From TrEMBL:
Keyword Transcription annotated: no
Chain coiled-coil ranges: none
Any one Gene Ontology molecular-function term assigned to this protein's record: G protein-coupled receptor activity
PROSITE patterns noted in UniProt: G_PROTEIN_RECEP_F1_1, G_PROTEIN_RECEP_F1_2
Pfam family, one: 7tm_1
Lineage: superkingdom: Eukaryota
Topology in membrane: Multi-pass membrane protein
Subcellular location: Cell membrane
Residue ranges of the TM segments: 34-53, 74-92, 125-147, 176-196, 208-225
Keyword Lyase assigned: no
Name of the protein: G-protein coupled receptors family 1 profile domain-containing protein
InterPro entries per the UniProt record, alphabetical: GPCR_Rhodpsn, GPCR_Rhodpsn_7TM, TAAR
Gene behind this protein: RvY_12614
Native source species: Ramazzottius varieornatus
Length: 248
């Protein structure tokens, strides 16, 4: 997951900006580049969803966690995300009014072509399935886990039979998932800013060519924040999951 996000930051984003500065006019080059750019970008979103599913299973189905977190299952999850994203991005490579990639006629560089109103706009469906769906499902899973931890915290009373150690574990897990939820909101803000603004204010974005560059800065911040958050929370999450398994 971090390799995918590092590839976006260190390779695809710099190349996309260079294409604008050199006023690239090659349509085949843009289509090939945009396919892999969108593919890796979408795989990153589905990797976030896979990580959320993994954490959801670890907390809600601890007895089944080891069966579903083997190397084969993880490889199957990752492979599925690549197959799904390739399938979603292939229609963007073809003409016919479904919403394909092309060249910016004014500034150069690669863009998504504007589809005529009477034709089917596939790029809107692509945005919902490749961006909004995995982010929404990730938020739903984290929200469900957080609600479960909040309900457990309400049971921590002097009259309960819960030991101090068990109560401490629940409170620590709650802090972790509050952190995950807050970081998810920040992550979603960073990555949804660009597609939302470019769809809601297309004329403004096209009028000011420097505006997309500043918006992409917010996206890059999201790529920076997410791997750091994963590294910070990984050990604590594993400790809590192992403790939960021991209690069960």
């Amino acid at each position: 997951m971090m390799l995918v996000e590092a590839t976006m930051c260190l390779l695809f984003f710099p190349i996309s900006q260079v294409f604008v500065y050199v006023h690239l006019r090659s349509v085949p080059t843009c289509r090939i580049f945009m396919f892999f750019f969108a593919l890796v970008n979408n795989v990153g979103f589905y990797n976030i969803l896979i990580l959320a599913v993994n954490r959801f299973i670890a907390i809600n189905l601890p007895l089944h966690y080891h069966k579903l977190s083997t190397a084969k299952c993880n490889a199957a999850f990752v492979l599925t995300s690549w197959v799904v994203c390739i399938t979603l991005n292939l229609p963007m490579e073809f003409n016919g009014g479904v919403g394909h990639y092309g060249v910016n006629p004014v500034y150069g560089g690669c863009i998504t072509e504007v589809v005529r109103p009477e034709l089917f706009d596939y790029k809107t469906l692509h945005s919902y399935l490749a961006i909004y769906f995995p982010l929404a499902m990730t938020g739903l899973l984290y929200g469900c886990v957080l609600l479960k931890q909040l309900s457990k915290c309400k049971r921590i009373t002097p009259a309960s039979q819960m030991t101090t150690r068990e109560a401490g574990i629940i409170k620590r897990k709650l802090r972790i998932f509050w952190m995950l939820l807050v970081s998810y909101v920040l992550y979603a803000f960073c990555f949804l800013t660009y597609p939302v603004l470019t769809r809601a204010l297309p004329d403004t974005v096209s009028k000011y060519p420097m505006l997309p560059l500043w918006i992409l800065l917010i996206v890059v911040c999201g790529y920076f924040v997410h791997p750091v958050r994963v590294l910070q929370s990984l050990d604590s999450s594993l400790r809590c999951c192992c403790t939960t398994l021991c209690l069960y």
